[in-house]
Amino acid sequence: RVGRPPQERPMSSSGDKGESTALLPKKRQRNVTVLSLVAITYFAVAGGPEGTETLIQTGGPLYSVLGFIIIGILWSIPMALMSAELTTAFPENGGYVLWVSAAWGAQAGEMAGWLQFVSSGVDACIYPGLFLVYLEQALDMNLEDPTIEWTIKITFVVLLLLLNVLGIESVGHGSTAFMIVLLTPFLIIISIAFTGIFTGIGVLGWPFSTAKMLGRPETEPDWPAFFMVLLWNMGYWEGASVCAGEVANVGTVFPQAIAISMIVVLLNYILPIMAFSGLDGNYDAFHNGHYITVAREVCGTWFAYALGLAQTVSVCGLFANGVVKNTYLVCGMSEQGLLPSALAARGRHRPLLSGFAAGNSVVYQTEIHAARTTKRISCAGGGGVDVAFVFSDGCDHGGWGYLWRLARDHGLFRIPCGGGVGPFSGPRP
Known about the structure:
There is one protein chain. The protein has helices at about 35-45, 55-90, 95-105, 105-125, 125-140, 145-165, 170-195, 210-215, 225-235, 250-280, 290-300, 300-335, 355-360, 360-365, 375-410. It is an all-alpha fold. The chain is globular, with a radius of gyration of 22 Å. The termini are close together.
């Protein structure tokens, strides 16, 4: 039965019975709670409203809001439900590696794991440089001096790696703090801006246009680029599944965290789009980082500093999330016999020290070459998009493949969140 605890259900390294099996830990403290898992999922999926400015520039705020709602219904909710079902069925570290292995065999699962390994490494290597760019914007300073630049980058990497060394509980608490600090300035600006919906002037005298808040661009939108950005911002709902073995009461906590994260992520995108479009109706000016420009020109210098600080905190959360994903991905693959068992070794604070080192070797090697300029960061990020979508496609096929085989062999089943819809309803085997 797929829902048994890890110590009762060892898995063969090749997926066949009779061969050597992985030695899964008999005892494990599961300390990750709902709030920590919400924050980890939030940074796996979104990481902040930044980056949605190009959607306003490309398609306008009306199409952007409708796009997030439609993509959320057609893409994100099914992915989130799939992640909730399979994580409760496989409450172990490794997440989608286990799903793909159950659907298509251990070799396919190992390949999905290595694709994610590379994807997270490529993604994480841009964040020290991106942190420096956002810090310059926040402080309105030039930090091009090589000594200052490398001091900031090395400090950024070392401090966030130390957070992971302290254990996933520290990462969960840190991610929660990052999320609160990141969203607070946006919530303040949005609340003040929306006071001008009926009068056209907010309580602090900010001009606000209700017509521009949900307007459309004068030119035809670039639909391929528009939908690519939408999908990129609404994917990776399966990201937190790699640390399912550390979650307390997975069957209850994980579905709750996914549901809360869905609401937070949608509001995280939709409300800033509406508020900042109402404050600045020049859609063509909305390039990446324009939220700070609007805050500086309309709201005041201190609000711009606050948003700049929020963006630097966002980068911290994204980097910490990438590190923890690779760490527990390697741990899960080791526990399932796909990698040497030594890589699942636990230290005093319960992190996977050797798995941590192996899972982030790509990060260590690429931090030194991390791009600093916006242009090079965009290029690095584009490469990450290509790798990430290859990985995501493999995980999706593995997850849906397993669900299809389960439904074929045992009938329909129900998502463990109090009810189901369509093919997700019915008795669970």
